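Notes from the 1:1 (GR / supervisor)

We went over the backlog. Supervisor wanted to see one worked example end to end before approving the batch request, so GR pasted a single chain during the call. The sequence is below; no edits were made to it. Supervisor asked that the structure be written out right there so they could see what the output format looks like.
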Amino acid sequence: MFRRLALPAALLVAVAALGAAPATAAPTTPAAGSVCFWTGAGQHGTSWCYTPPGYTDVPEFLHDKASSFRSDADTAVYAIDWARDTCYHRLIRAHDLADNWAWGARIDGVSDTTMGCEVG
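Structure output shown during the call:
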């Protein structure tokens, strides 16, 4: 008797799953005072946010792969590129954004200072 009920129940679960809407992740929006970076253009893809102060390495999935950013920080921050014998910085102004950010192909970290790096 249990076997007869198991198949219809499994069939109902499968049909219900087919009709369910696919799950989508809510887009990341910068928290007050932070700067968010995305792997895709137009603030799409996987994201990570930095909140000053201090220096922080970007996560591996964004290392040299940030395609866009959006700042909700009230202060400037700097994208940092660690080169072989030196480092470079790129200014990110307060409340700025870039939907196609070419410099993101160089980003290694983010800081609230230039870290003594050259302008990149």
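Supervisor's comment: The chain has a mean pLDDT of 84.
Batch request approved.
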